[in-house]
């Protein structure tokens, strides 16, 4: 009996992938291809699959580079076994970046507001277009106000100078200019005693005192009870004047308020130590 041996087959078919040359170098003649008839040995067991990796952590391409004060290097995260930490620092975002951006927005808006107010003579020279522009900037500041309960804030205490208003009764725009209050106008507030004082300077030096009755954390009812004419003549007249005032923006430099008749008042701090007389 003949011993079993591999059978060799000669064929003129093109080379297989394992042994073929690239098509650009292939010969046109037939090439022998050897093939064993023995079944191929079983493939070795596949190695254990490596963990699936995410691409390196990256911020979206539309992030401005200067918007982030602290960033983290790119890193790979395992799925699904490992859980990424949820702290802001692990996401490449600064704890303070939002605060810095907001602070810069407030500073820019305040500068824009003061520039818009400067040529308007406290609002007496403002056109309807000027009033609309000032109101729009004021509303942007009000939207980023961080003092949510101004009637509980020490920032409200002190003497404030009126730098802009739409109130005709304060500006006296119906009078000739020489009969208007041409000097500075002040308003002082004491949070602890809930007292307010309005003070005109040149040429009349009138004053008015009022009690403040909180209606909520931002709005007060104003009840005038004492007046001083020309800085000399006192007049007690409780209940002679009433109104409401809502404080819509407050910081250590600037205060924005709105009255119940729709008037806008913008004031700057001049003396935080001033106290309203009792």
Task: Supply database-style keywords.
278 residues, alpha+beta, 8-stranded antiparallel beta barrel
Broad structural category: alpha+beta
Uncertain runs: 1-38, 49-97
Work out the radius of gyration.
40 Å
Largest sheet data: 8 strands, antiparallel, barrel
| Gross geometry | elongated
Give the ordered list of helices and strands: EEHHEHEEEEEEE
Relative helix content: 10-25%
Strand content: 25-35%
Strand order of the largest sheet: 3-4-5-6-7-8-9-10
Question: How many H/I helices?
Answer: 3
Strand element count: 10
How many angstroms separate the termini? 131 Å
Explain what you see.
It is a single chain. The protein has 278 residues and is an alpha+beta fold. 15% of the residues lie in helices and 27% in strands. The chain has three helices and ten strands. The chain has helices at 97-117, 128-143, 168-171, and strands spanning 52-53, 78-79, 158-165, 185-190, 195-200, 207-214, 219-229, 233-250, 254-259, 264-271. The strands form two sheets. Strands 3-4-5-6-7-8-9-10 form an eight-stranded antiparallel barrel. A two-stranded antiparallel ribbon has the order 1-2.
What secondary-structure arrangement, pairings included, does this model have?
Blueprint: E1 52-53, E2 78-79, H1 97-117, H2 128-143, E3 158-165, H3 168-171, E4 185-190, E5 195-200, E6 207-214, E7 219-229, E8 233-250, E9 254-259, E10 264-271
């Amino acid at each position: 009996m003949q011993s079993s041996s591999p059978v060799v087959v000669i064929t003129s078919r093109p080379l297989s992938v394992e042994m073929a040359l690239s098509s650009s170098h292939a010969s046109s003649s037939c090439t022998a291809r050897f093939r064993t008839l023995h079944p191929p040995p079983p493939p070795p067991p596949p190695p254990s699959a490596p963990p699936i990796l995410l691409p390196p952590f990256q911020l979206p391409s539309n992030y401005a580079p200067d918007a982030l004060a602290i960033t983290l290097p790119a890193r790979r995260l395992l799925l699904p076994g490992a859980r990424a930490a949820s702290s802001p620092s692990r996401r490449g975002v600064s704890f303070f970046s939002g605060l810095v951006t907001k602070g810069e927005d407030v500073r820019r808006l305040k500068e824009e507001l003061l520039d818009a107010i400067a040529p308007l003579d406290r609002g007496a020279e403002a056109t309807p277009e000027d009033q609309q522009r000032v109101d729009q900037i004021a509303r942007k500041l009000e939207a980023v106000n961080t003092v949510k309960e101004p009637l509980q804030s020490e920032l409200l205490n002190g003497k404030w100078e009126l730098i802009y208003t739409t109130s005709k009764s304060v500006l006296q725009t119906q009078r000739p200019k020489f009969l208007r209050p041409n000097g500075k106008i002040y308003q002082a507030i004491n949070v602890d005693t809930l007292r307010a004082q309005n003070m005109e300077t040149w040429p009349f030096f009138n004053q008015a005192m009022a009690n403040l009755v909180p209606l909520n954390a931002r709005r007060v009812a104003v009840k005038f009870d004492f007046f001083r004419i020309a800085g000399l003549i006192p007049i007690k007249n409780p209940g002679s004047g009433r109104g409401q005032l809502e404080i819509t923006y407050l910081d250590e430099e600037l205060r924005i308020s709105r009255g119940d008749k729709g008037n806008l008042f913008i004031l700057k701090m001049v003396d935080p130590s001033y106290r309203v007389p009792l």
